[in-house]
Amino acid sequence: MRKIIALAATVLSTAALLSGTAAPAQALRPAQPNPWDHRVHCTSTDDDGRKIVTRFGNSDFGWNHFTHRHNIKKCSILNAALKDKVDRNDGHGRLEYDGVAIRTGGRPVQVKFVVIVQYTRKTKDGKYDAGRGQKIGVVNAFCRNQPNNKCPTWMNQ
To answer: What's the CA gap between 69 and 131, in Å, rounded?
Structure first.
């Protein structure tokens, strides 16, 4: 009896697939061409009153990008630069803020860093969209005068 039921189930599922009544697997889940994490990790307000968010993003931009690639692991580093006026504005939503981190002690060290913000709904290439009424936010942050633009570990302490 079990063999007959198993055979009948196989025949029915094959017939359903051949008749076109079964939905393909792709139709169940729409493809995300550029998946990224929209969630906000940090928030800051600049000197001009702009609310600037840092989204988790992905390996291309956002927190997940610069945390691994440029060794910036604290929101306070971003906030140090974002609290001031914009240093460079391309007029199309790309804002750059400069910051300086200083390590005091026996051998003082000064490190210059940059925080880049996309203050528009979409990225310049149109691949990513923050949604209606939202801004992309911080896309990158890195240290200028360091090898591979990677910030020293002491900045995260």
So the answer is: 26
Average pLDDT over residues 116-123: 95
User: What six digits make up the tokens of 141?
Assistant: 């942050």
> Where in 58-134 does DSSP place strands (E)?
88-89, 94-103, 109-118
**Per-residue confidence (pLDDT) for residue 89, from 0 to 100:** 95
Mean pLDDT, the chain, whole residue set: 84
56 in helix, strand or coil? strand
Task: Name the residue with tokens 């630069």.
Answer: 81
pLDDT value for 145: 82
Q: Cα Rg for the chain, rounded, in angstroms?
A: 24
10 Å Cβ neighbour count for 109?
12
- Copy the structure tokens of residue 57: 């993003």
